[in-house]
Design brief:
This protein has 201 residues and is an alpha+beta fold. The chain is built from ten helices and four strands, in the order E-E-E-H-E-H-H-H-H-H-H-H-H-H. The model has no long low-confidence stretch (mean pLDDT 88). Pfam families: RecX_HTH1, RecX_HTH2, RecX_HTH3.
Length: 201
């Protein structure tokens, strides 16, 4: 049995409940009324299970499906969105298990798609940093890069040098260093950068 220790009114007819076991739930007024929830009220273990897995859990599944309809997302991005929506961890896990069972969420597929669309203008390093920032696990990123990356980094460097209007013959050491550091910040390997820059002589 758990006790409601606090109830806070939110917008759009929603209420946030704090339970004495540490769980937080966001419910609509009708749902709260159905379970007779208010500060000081109690829930049996069966009622708590029903509330989390059948009421809020089902809503978390629908919310996750809606998020995926808008755009492809990583598992971590979905978890963050659901957490921001006030869903408890048990409901988040339930929703992610549901969509993963249908392969609606697949971090490897997401990484490969991301790489395929951006490999012509981003280095391997840049892609790795971007995917890591989106919550894709490192081992998944490495496998996706190994199997999906077909970009020509030398060609990318040359295009960037042309965009910068770099001319090795007419550039002093300061200009050479500035362009070199710019390319290094974009994640290209030093040997590739120097080779491309010297080829512009």
């Amino acid at each position: 049995m758990v006790t409601v220790t606090e109830c806070t009114t939110l917008g759009k007819g929603r209420l946030r409940f704090h339970l004495d076991n540490g769980t937080e739930l966001v419910l609509y007024r009708g749902e709260a009324k159905q379970f007779r929830m208010r500060e000081g009220s109690t829930l049996s273990d069966e009622e708590e299970h029903q509330l989390i897995y059948e009421v809020v859990g089902k809503r978390a599944k629908r919310r996750t499906m809606h998020l995926l309809e808008q755009m492809d997302r990583t598992e971590q991005q979905l978890r963050e969105k659901l957490k921001q929506g006030g869903y408890p961890q048990a409901c988040i896990d339930l929703a992610l298990e549901y969509v993963k069972s249908f392969h609606y969420v697949d971090d490897y597929r997401y990484a490969c798609t991301y790489i395929n669309y951006r490999q012509d203008r981003m280095s391997r390093y840049q892609l790795k940093v971007k995917l890591y920032g989106k919550g894709v696990p490192g081992e998944v990123i490495d496998r996706a890069l190994e199997e999906c990356y077909e970009g020509d980094e030398q060609e990318q460097i040359i295009r960037l040098l042309e965009k910068k209007k770099f001319d090795a013959q007419n550039s002093d050491q300061k200009e050479f260093t500035r362009v070199y550091q710019y390319l290094m910040r974009r994640g290209f390997r030093s040997n590739d950068v120097l080779h491309a820059m010297k080829s512009k002589q």
